[in-house]
Amino acid sequence: MSQRRPLSLQARSTVAAGLALAAFLGVTGFALDKAYYDATVAAMRDRLQGYVYAYLAGSDVLRGTKLLPPETLPDPEFNRPGSGLYAVVVGDSESLRWESPSALGRELAFDTRLPVGETRFEGPVDNAVGRVFVFSQGVSWEVDERKPVALTVHVAQSDQPFLRQIDAYRRTLVRWLGALAIVLLLLQIALLRWGLSPLRRMVRDVDNVMNGDADRLPGQYPAEIEPLTGSLNELIDFGREQLDRYRNTMSDLAHSLKTPLAVLRSEIDSDSGYQNLRRSVSAQSQRMHDIVSYQLSRATASRHQVFSTPLAIENAAEGIVASLEKVYAAKRVLCEFELDPDARFFGAQGDLMELLGNLLENAFKWTDRRVLLTAHVIKTPRMRRSGLELRVEDDGPGIPPEKVEHLLQRGVRGDERVQGHGIGLAIVQDIVKGYRGTLSVQRSEALGGALFVVRFEAVS
């Protein structure tokens, strides 16, 4: 069963933005609907209370026994039967009960009597005429010198106009919020396409590199992906360099072996005798062994890894020095360390061993008594990876400045009487070059001999 392909970054961002937008607009719509509903109910209460005040202002109580309604009602709807707007006044006696013309023929359950000064707003409540909002107020009516008359004025309105108003508002709100959601989603998609365009451009550039249309990732990229593109360019360069290195190594090996093989063939074809042939075969086989060793060292000298675990210097150095002290036991070499605890080599373990091994072996070979290994951290602000400086110095004869470049060439030895192939320092130089570092040879001020300084700069 094939594994489901994960969503693209744009699809993920669009879904996440859509969900967040839906949640935001949903909460916003709920809040606006609640606010409008509460405001409409409050307006309904104020309107009904205004009708109560209008009735109180225009009504009168005749001799405390009969209620005279106002000649002009506050709203024409009070005169139209079944209009949905009703007024009822109830008192202590049946003669003090009055209903607006709109309430004629309808059994309105407005018999509640409120204490003087108390108001009550309810709704919507069920009634014989349907669901209505009701505002009620208890008042005390002064009648000449008689005892005050207690009245309760009820004004009610059907909830149908209220519901139509709410429904109209909600439809408008949904339309506008829906349109806003579509516009914002389209804008979000456009912004995402614009924001992700550098990644799409990087994919096209990688395809161009894979197809051979470009050598590296060209152009400028945003700061967030520059480390990635820089590492990719470094990886591309490293792969190209490695391919060239392997090609050159094989070519050089084949070319180097042609001469000793030709000598052997000529010796076989000649009548020089068994002893001469034996000596020639021995010499040429040794030469071929040296050539193969040289080329293998060259092929494996630089295994630069772009994404590497940082390696501590001290452990590698201690193992190498322990071995060298056995080899050069007769010299009684004193090797000292001055290592920063935070010093790290970002690369392959084999490269670190080759680097330290060849430098220290060279120092042990030429020193009189003392060797000093120093490691410092190169710290640069705003760099994601610190650099490293390695210093190996001895108290030997040193290297004259005019011979430094010559001695760093492959196969060149400082003294032909000293055993070796003359490729150690060249391997060091290849490793340093593979890691974009620098190698310099100076005279040691502390010990007086040679000083080899290897620097790997901090990486952004």
From TrEMBL:
GO terms for molecular function: ATP binding; phosphorelay sensor kinase activity. GO terms for cellular component: plasma membrane. SUPFAM superfamilies: ATPase domain of HSP90 chaperone/DNA topoisomerase II/histidine kinase. Residues 252-460 form the Histidine kinase domain. It catalyses: ATP + protein L-histidine = ADP + protein N-phospho-L-histidine. The keyword Transferase applies. Its main location: membrane. Residues 193-244 form the HAMP domain. InterPro entries: HAMP_dom, HATPase_C_sf, HATPase_dom, His_kinase_dom, HisK_dim/P_dom, PhoQ/CarS-like_HATPase, Sig_transdc_His_kin-like_C, TCS_sensor_his_kinase. It is found in: Membrane. It is an enzyme of class 2 (transferase). It holds the Pfam family HATPase_c. The chain crosses the membrane at residues 173-194. Its EC number is 2.7.13.3. Keywords: ATP-binding, Kinase, Membrane, Nucleotide-binding, Phosphoprotein, Transferase, Transmembrane, Transmembrane helix, Two-component regulatory system. It comes from the Bacteria. This is histidine kinase. The lineage of its organism: Bacteria, Pseudomonadati, Pseudomonadota, Gammaproteobacteria, Lysobacterales.
